[in-house]
Each structure stands twice: as C-alpha cells, then as structure tokens.
C-alpha cells in the first residue's frame, strides 16, 4: 500500500511540475476564441490589433504544444486554464 501511495505522490509531483502557465493576456485571447469570435472580433473586444491577438494565441499554442488555435483552446479548457 505504501508503494502505491508513493507512486501516486510522485506522479502528482511530476504532473504539477509540467503544468503550463499562460499569461493573463494569453488567457484573455483564448477566452475570446473559445466563445467563437473571429480574430477581428476578439481583437476589437480586447482593444488590440489582430496581429497582437495572433501573437498571444501563437505564444499559448507553443506553450501548450498544439498545432492550431482550435487545439490550443481545447487543451486550455481540458487543463482548466480558461
């Protein structure tokens, strides 16, 4: 029983070390995409240019290891980041 508890603690520790931290701006951008906004609509809602929005989304995408924005939003939801 102690062996199982030890392995669970190790897994929990490793998982917590691998958690991704997104910036507030990346989270805001992903939330806009989550509700179905276009890049232009999301940029307007956040008061930023489409280029700035895409930069934030790209940064989040790299941090989460995703291939596109849709996958990034899905992963962020699954990991309770947004």
Describe this structure as you would to a colleague.
The chain has 82 residues and is mainly alpha-helical. It has a domain at 22-78: Arc Repressor Mutant, subunit A (Orthogonal Bundle). 73% of the residues lie in helices and 0% in strands. The chain contains 5 helices and no strands. It has helices spanning 2-17, 24-34, 39-46, 50-64, 69-78. The chain is elongated.
Globally, the shape reads elongated
Give the number of helices.
5
User: Which residues sit in consecutive blocks of at least 5 with pLDDT less than 50?
Assistant: none
CATH-assigned homologous superfamily of one domain: Winged helix-like DNA-binding domain superfamily/Winged helix DNA-binding domain
Q: What is the top-level CATH class of one domain? A: Mainly Alpha
Question: Main beta sheet: strand number and arrangement?
Answer: none
Distance between the termini: 36 Å
Name the assembly state.
single chain
Mean pLDDT: 90
Structural class designation: mainly alpha
The CATH architecture name of one domain reads: Orthogonal Bundle
* Rg, Å, rounded: 16 Å
The residue fraction in helices comes out at over 70%
Strand percentage lies at under 5%
Number of strands: 0
CATH topology of one domain: Arc Repressor Mutant, subunit A
Order of helices and strands: HHHHH
């Amino acid at each position: 029983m102690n062996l199982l508890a030890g392995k669970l603690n190790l897994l929990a520790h490793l998982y917590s070390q691998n958690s991704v931290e997104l910036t507030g701006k990346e989270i805001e951008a992903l939330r806009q995409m989550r509700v179905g906004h276009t890049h232009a609509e999301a940029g307007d809602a956040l008061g930023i240019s489409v280029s700035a929005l895409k930069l934030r989304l790209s940064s989040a995408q790299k941090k989460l290891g995703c291939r596109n924005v849709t996958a990034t939003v899905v992963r962020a939801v699954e990991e309770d980041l947004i």
